[in-house]
Write a structure and sequence with these properties.
mainly alpha; 2 helices; 96% helix; 0% strand; rod-shaped
Length: 134
């Protein structure tokens, strides 16, 4: 099959594109993790501020419910981003496996062609030797 080099080049391009998508997905996950950490830090700071002030404690109760909803939303978003990243990672692994299969097939083809050329040269040498002996 003469198209192996082209197929390999296309498989490499696809893997490179998928690597870029994976990098973007990793960055999105890191952003979501940072937002969650920021939310947790804000919650801890508000809790500490409200601990010494009864008036602030009343406001904190309402604020904490909203903060809990926001935290749940951030956790869901983080989970979705982690799932997407894992799906991209799995697809990239499959791309690399396909690329390796193509490279091995090309290597086997070239090895077979070299073996055939060697046999042909050996036959030609034998024919010449037989003609010389006659």
């Amino acid at each position: 099959m003469r198209s192996f080099p082209l197929l390999i080049r296309l498989a490499r391009q696809r893997a490179d594109e998928r690597r870029l998508v994976l990098a973007a997905a990793e960055q999105a996950r890191l952003t979501a993790e940072a937002a969650l950490a920021e939310q947790d830090a804000r919650l801890a700071a508000e809790r500490a501020r409200a601990a010494g002030d009864p008036e602030a404690m009343a406001g904190w109760a309402a604020w904490s419910r909203a903060a809990a909803r926001q935290r749940r939303r951030l956790l869901e978003e983080l989970g979705a981003r982690q799932e997407r990243e894992e799906a991209i990672r799995a697809a990239l692994a499959e791309d690399f496996a396909a690329l390796k299969r193509l490279e091995l097939a090309l290597q086997a083809q070239r090895h077979g062609e070299a073996r055939e050329a060697s046999r042909k040269a050996e036959r030609a040498a034998e024919d010449m030797e037989l003609r010389r002996l006659r």
